[in-house]
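Question:
Write out your own:
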Amino acid sequence: MLVFFLCFLVLTGCARDKAGTGITVAGSTSVQPFADKWAEVYMEENPGKIVNVQGGGSSAGIQATKSGACNIGTSSRELKPDEKDLTEIVVARDGLAIIVHPLNPIDNMTIDQVKSIFNGKIRNWRELGGKDKLITVVTREEGSGTRGAFQELVMKKDRVAKNAIVQDSNGTVREIVAGDPNAIGYISLGLVNDKVRALKLNGVQATDENIISRKYKLVRPFLFVTKSEPTPACREFINFVQSAEGQKLVSEEGLIPVK
């Protein structure tokens, strides 16, 4: 039901935009702040060109692209087999950070331990050498690209426990973890700030260098998707995102450039 509602919001928003002259980019809330920055700089350099960026989630953006209601969809997860009819363009790569409160004494976990926390098998920090406190599990909503990437990279066939707190953006996950010393969540590495701390996984810190070298395993693509070959207007914006200037913005905003 939530995914349907998000799709409705994106589809109706895109439909209104198509009546105008601008490009609508819609989908992943993880990609959204970075797409906002690309659009801002692009429009400053190209007066009269309009790029309207919306959220809604990866699945909603993909559905909007499939329907033809949206010019460019965004996804922060790999496309599923039934979505492969879309044209996909990797515009950046991102590490998925497992975050805790800065006061949490735990510094390192295995990916299996993270899975056991999120599926409910591990419920107390004491089981991991921490304090005798129940773990507050914070997750993203179904349909989120961040949730999809976490499911694929960490959970595999397991499901996130039903008692987990569900949030609709990386920012709100970060805020809950920042306010609860017993909480754990996952967000885009580019959104980690001094209010939370990213754990090492299997002894490897989440850094740009470790992502590029593939030592850090939780890496996902940031995708632009179009229904067919991009229109000239869309291609111009995509070319800007893939240019040296656009990829410099990627690096400045905490993501990993694709070139």
Remarks:
- The first helix runs from residue 2 to 18.
